[in-house]
Amino acid sequence: MEHWQLVNRRVRDIEELIAPTIGAMGYELWGIDTSGVGSHERVCVYIDSGSGIALQDCEAVSRQLSGLLDVDDSFNDSYTLEVSSPGLDRILFKDDQFRMNIGQWLNIRLEVPLDGRRRVEGLLVRVENGELVLSVNDDEYLIPLERVRRARIVPQFD
Protein backbone atom coordinates (compact mmCIF):
# COMPACT_ATOMS: atom_id res chain seq x y z
CA MET A 1 0.00 0.00 0.00
CA GLU A 2 1.27 3.48 -0.93
CA HIS A 3 2.29 5.88 1.86
CA TRP A 4 -0.45 8.37 0.93
CA GLN A 5 -3.07 5.59 1.14
CA LEU A 6 -1.88 4.74 4.66
CA VAL A 7 -2.07 8.43 5.61
CA ASN A 8 -5.61 8.64 4.20
CA ARG A 9 -6.68 5.59 6.19
CA ARG A 10 -5.16 7.06 9.36
CA VAL A 11 -6.97 10.36 8.79
CA ARG A 12 -10.27 8.50 8.32
CA ASP A 13 -9.68 6.63 11.60
CA ILE A 14 -8.98 9.88 13.46
CA GLU A 15 -12.02 11.51 11.84
CA GLU A 16 -14.31 8.67 12.98
CA LEU A 17 -12.99 9.07 16.51
CA ILE A 18 -13.29 12.85 16.86
CA ALA A 19 -16.22 13.85 14.58
CA PRO A 20 -18.96 12.98 17.13
CA THR A 21 -17.29 15.11 19.82
CA ILE A 22 -16.84 18.08 17.49
CA GLY A 23 -20.46 17.79 16.31
CA ALA A 24 -21.75 17.56 19.88
CA MET A 25 -19.91 20.80 20.65
CA GLY A 26 -21.79 22.54 17.82
CA TYR A 27 -19.01 22.67 15.24
CA GLU A 28 -18.42 21.10 11.85
CA LEU A 29 -15.30 19.02 11.29
CA TRP A 30 -13.96 20.65 8.12
CA GLY A 31 -10.99 18.31 7.77
CA ILE A 32 -7.83 16.82 9.24
CA ASP A 33 -4.29 17.37 8.03
CA THR A 34 -1.40 15.27 9.32
CA SER A 35 2.32 15.50 8.81
CA GLY A 36 5.43 13.92 10.27
CA VAL A 37 5.72 10.54 11.94
CA GLY A 38 6.37 9.15 15.37
CA SER A 39 7.11 11.69 18.07
CA HIS A 40 7.11 14.46 15.47
CA GLU A 41 3.59 13.80 14.20
CA ARG A 42 1.40 16.89 13.79
CA VAL A 43 -2.37 16.59 13.63
CA CYS A 44 -4.19 19.73 12.54
CA VAL A 45 -7.97 19.64 12.94
CA TYR A 46 -9.97 22.28 11.07
CA ILE A 47 -13.36 23.24 12.49
CA ASP A 48 -16.04 25.56 11.18
CA SER A 49 -19.46 26.89 12.12
CA GLY A 50 -22.09 29.12 10.61
CA SER A 51 -21.08 31.94 12.93
CA GLY A 52 -17.35 31.59 12.33
CA ILE A 53 -14.57 30.36 14.60
CA ALA A 54 -12.85 32.31 17.36
CA LEU A 55 -9.72 31.44 19.33
CA GLN A 56 -11.86 30.31 22.30
CA ASP A 57 -13.62 27.79 20.05
CA CYS A 58 -10.30 26.29 18.99
CA GLU A 59 -9.13 26.13 22.61
CA ALA A 60 -12.31 24.39 23.78
CA VAL A 61 -12.19 21.82 20.98
CA SER A 62 -8.48 21.26 21.56
CA ARG A 63 -9.07 20.47 25.24
CA GLN A 64 -11.79 17.95 24.39
CA LEU A 65 -9.82 16.29 21.59
CA SER A 66 -6.59 16.08 23.60
CA GLY A 67 -8.30 13.98 26.22
CA LEU A 68 -9.97 11.82 23.60
CA LEU A 69 -6.80 11.26 21.55
CA ASP A 70 -4.63 10.65 24.62
CA VAL A 71 -6.67 7.60 25.62
CA ASP A 72 -6.91 6.26 22.06
CA ASP A 73 -4.20 3.81 21.02
CA SER A 74 -3.79 5.41 17.56
CA PHE A 75 -0.77 7.35 18.76
CA ASN A 76 2.18 5.24 19.88
CA ASP A 77 4.34 8.31 20.39
CA SER A 78 3.68 11.89 21.35
CA TYR A 79 2.06 14.19 18.83
CA THR A 80 1.20 17.84 18.42
CA LEU A 81 -2.46 18.71 18.12
CA GLU A 82 -3.53 21.94 16.46
CA VAL A 83 -7.13 23.10 16.12
CA SER A 84 -7.84 25.90 13.65
CA SER A 85 -10.47 27.49 11.48
CA PRO A 86 -10.12 26.71 7.77
CA GLY A 87 -9.44 30.39 6.96
CA LEU A 88 -9.81 32.19 3.63
CA ASP A 89 -7.21 29.97 1.95
CA ARG A 90 -8.92 26.85 3.24
CA ILE A 91 -7.86 23.38 2.31
CA LEU A 92 -10.60 21.38 0.63
CA PHE A 93 -10.92 17.80 1.84
CA LYS A 94 -14.25 16.43 0.65
CA ASP A 95 -16.27 16.16 -2.53
CA ASP A 96 -19.02 18.48 -1.24
CA GLN A 97 -16.42 21.09 -0.24
CA PHE A 98 -15.17 21.15 -3.83
CA ARG A 99 -18.74 21.50 -5.09
CA MET A 100 -19.36 24.43 -2.73
CA ASN A 101 -16.31 26.17 -4.14
CA ILE A 102 -16.95 25.96 -7.88
CA GLY A 103 -15.79 29.26 -9.36
CA GLN A 104 -12.89 29.59 -6.89
CA TRP A 105 -9.22 29.65 -7.83
CA LEU A 106 -7.44 26.54 -6.47
CA ASN A 107 -3.86 25.48 -5.95
CA ILE A 108 -3.69 21.69 -6.21
CA ARG A 109 -0.80 19.43 -5.29
CA LEU A 110 -1.03 15.92 -6.74
CA GLU A 111 0.04 12.55 -5.39
CA VAL A 112 1.15 11.43 -8.84
CA PRO A 113 2.13 13.78 -11.69
CA LEU A 114 -0.51 14.59 -14.28
CA ASP A 115 0.87 15.58 -17.68
CA GLY A 116 4.27 15.91 -15.98
CA ARG A 117 2.99 18.33 -13.31
CA ARG A 118 2.65 17.80 -9.57
CA ARG A 119 1.09 21.23 -9.00
CA VAL A 120 -1.77 22.79 -10.89
CA GLU A 121 -3.37 26.17 -10.24
CA GLY A 122 -6.56 27.31 -11.89
CA LEU A 123 -10.27 27.99 -11.72
CA LEU A 124 -12.51 25.17 -10.49
CA VAL A 125 -15.14 24.85 -13.23
CA ARG A 126 -17.04 21.78 -12.05
CA VAL A 127 -16.87 18.48 -10.20
CA GLU A 128 -18.15 15.39 -11.97
CA ASN A 129 -17.69 11.63 -11.74
CA GLY A 130 -15.00 11.89 -9.08
CA GLU A 131 -12.97 14.40 -11.08
CA LEU A 132 -12.24 18.09 -10.76
CA VAL A 133 -12.42 20.16 -13.92
CA LEU A 134 -9.89 22.98 -13.64
CA SER A 135 -9.45 25.78 -16.16
CA VAL A 136 -5.78 26.70 -16.58
CA ASN A 137 -4.79 29.25 -19.23
CA ASP A 138 -7.84 28.40 -21.39
CA ASP A 139 -7.12 24.65 -21.13
CA GLU A 140 -9.22 22.29 -19.04
CA TYR A 141 -7.61 19.68 -16.81
CA LEU A 142 -9.50 16.66 -15.52
CA ILE A 143 -8.02 15.77 -12.15
CA PRO A 144 -9.19 12.59 -10.40
CA LEU A 145 -9.99 13.37 -6.77
CA GLU A 146 -8.00 10.34 -5.57
CA ARG A 147 -4.86 11.93 -7.06
CA VAL A 148 -5.27 15.16 -5.06
CA ARG A 149 -2.84 15.35 -2.16
CA ARG A 150 -3.91 18.86 -1.15
CA ALA A 151 -6.22 21.45 -2.66
CA ARG A 152 -6.25 24.95 -1.27
CA ILE A 153 -8.35 27.97 -2.22
CA VAL A 154 -6.29 30.89 -3.49
CA PRO A 155 -8.21 34.02 -2.40
CA GLN A 156 -8.67 36.51 -5.22
CA PHE A 157 -8.85 40.18 -4.29
CA ASP A 158 -10.09 42.35 -7.13
What this model shows, in words?
The chain has 158 residues and is α+β, with helices and mostly antiparallel strands. The protein folds into 2 domains: 3-84, 2-Layer Sandwich (GMP Synthetase, Chain A, domain 3); 91-153, Ribosome maturation factor RimP, C-terminal domain (SH3 type barrels), CATH 2.30.30. The chain has helices spanning 3-24, 55-71, 95-100; strands spanning 28-35, 41-48, 79-84, 91-92, 105-114, 117-128, 131-136, 139-144, 148-153. The strands form 2 sheets. It has a 6-stranded antiparallel beta sheet with strand order 4-9-5-6-7-8. Strand 1 and strand 2 (41-48) form a beta hairpin. Helix 1 (3-24) crosses helix 2. The longest helix has 22 residues, at 3-24. The chain starts with a helix and ends in a 5-residue tail after the last strand. The mean pLDDT is 88.
Helix/strand layout:
Layout: H1 3-24, E1 28-35, E2 41-48, H2 55-71, E3 79-84, E4 91-92, H3 95-100, E5 105-114, E6 117-128, E7 131-136, E8 139-144, E9 148-153
Parallel strand pairs: 2-3
Antiparallel strand pairs: 1-2, 4-9, 5-6, 5-9, 6-7, 7-8
Helix pairs in contact: 1-2
Tell me the radius of gyration: 17 Å
CATH structural architecture of the largest domain: 2-Layer Sandwich
Helix content range = 25-40%
Percentage of β-strand residues: 35-45%
Biggest pleated sheet: 6 strands, antiparallel
Mean pLDDT: 88
The CATH topology of the largest domain is given as GMP Synthetase, Chain A, domain 3
Catalogue the unreliable spans: none
Count of DSSP strands? 9
Distance between the termini: 44 Å
Order of helices and strands: HEEHEEHEEEEE
